[in-house]
Amino acid sequence: xxxxxxxxxxxxxxxxxxxxxxxxxxxxxxxxxxxxxxxxxxxxxxxxxxxxxxxxxxxxx
Length: 61
Hints:
The chain is of the alpha+beta class.
């Protein structure tokens, strides 16, 4: 299994949003918080949904 290659990566506060192609040839979008001890991450089919998740995330760490 090859690692995900993220592109079109942006940062919204502590959250990074990136796009990648999964093993099935589908495009997916991920939002993940980079703050220490925060386990927030989500995967979406739409880029706008991933960006909305990043904008509304409130980090408790």
